[in-house]
Amino acid sequence: MIALPAGVTVWLVAGATDMRKGFDGLAALVQMQLAEDPFSGQLFVFRGRAGDRVKILWWSGDGMCLFAKRLERGRFIWPQATHGAVTLTAAQLSMLLEGIDWRRPVRTVEPQLAV
Fold first, then answer.
1. Pfam families of this UniProt entry (predicted)?
2. Predicted TM-score (pTM) of this structure
């Protein structure tokens, strides 16, 4: 995964998005549906209807970047809402992209005894 800039906001766009959309179509969705600036340097994450594909739109400062991922098995965990957006941390985005439920991560058991 490409390292995220410090302090970047990650927006998970609720609902299903037409994965045929490219740079311009997704940027228009950011402006029209979220009333956000797609050129702000924030990340905007979109999921397809089947739930196995995501696209991430990001302005790097000198150009628009579009990243895509398809899971071969399983689905990306998404909010139940059909519109709006949810903010994620970089760690939650990393879990999401690995197919892990970022809403309720299971931590390993803390050691009880030092041996």
1. TnpB_IS66
2. 0.83
Helix/strand/coil percentages in the chain, nearest 5: 15, 25, 60
Q: Which of 51, 41, 32, 49 is nearest to 10 (CA)?
A: 41
31 near 38, Cβ under 8 Å? yes
Report d(CA 21, CA 111) in Å as an integer: 48
3-state secondary structure of 91: helix
Do residues 76 and 47 touch, judged by C-beta distance below 8 A? yes
What backbone phi and psi angles, to 5 degrees, belong to 93?
A: -65, -40
